[in-house]
Design a protein that fits this description.
Layout: H1 10-17, E1 27-29, E2 36-38, E3 48-49, E4 52-53, H2 61-73, H3 77-92, H4 95-114
Antiparallel strand pairs: 1-2, 3-4
């Protein structure tokens, strides 16, 4: 392991640290409200980023959440594939078993509609 032979002096230490400088943060203007905003951040005044509502400060934020919930409800295609698998099993099973499976499916569908 490398170990310094002598202590670093104050002037050498200061010269090394002289190159570290603070920089001004990049500031842009919000296209919606005109307030100065740090780059790549949400506007603190109106709550928008790149023209989209992303903060609760904007009155339209509630509508955006409702749209996202409806989008999440759409991908229920997996259930249809499960039904297809059940139907394949039902076609292979005996008639008595078919009736039981259909009764269970109808009961599950009724529970889902009640929720």
């Amino acid at each position: 392991m490398a170990v310094p032979k002598k202590r670093t002096g104050h002037s050498a230490q200061g010269k090394r640290r002289a190159n570290w400088k603070a920089t001004k943060p990049e500031v842009s203007i919000c296209p919606n409200c005109g307030q100065p905003v740090k780059s790549h951040t949400v506007c603190t005044a109106c709550g928008q980023y790149k023209g989209k509502v992303v903060s609760r400060k904007d009155p339209n934020f509630v509508e955006e959440i409702k749209e996202k919930e409806t989008k999440k409800a759409a991908p229920k295609k997996k259930a249809s594939t499960k039904k297809a698998k059940v139907e394949k099993k039902v076609t292979e099973a005996e008639p008595e078993v078919k009736e039981e499976v259909k009764a269970e499916e109808s009961a599950q569908q009724e529970e889902k509609t009640e929720e």
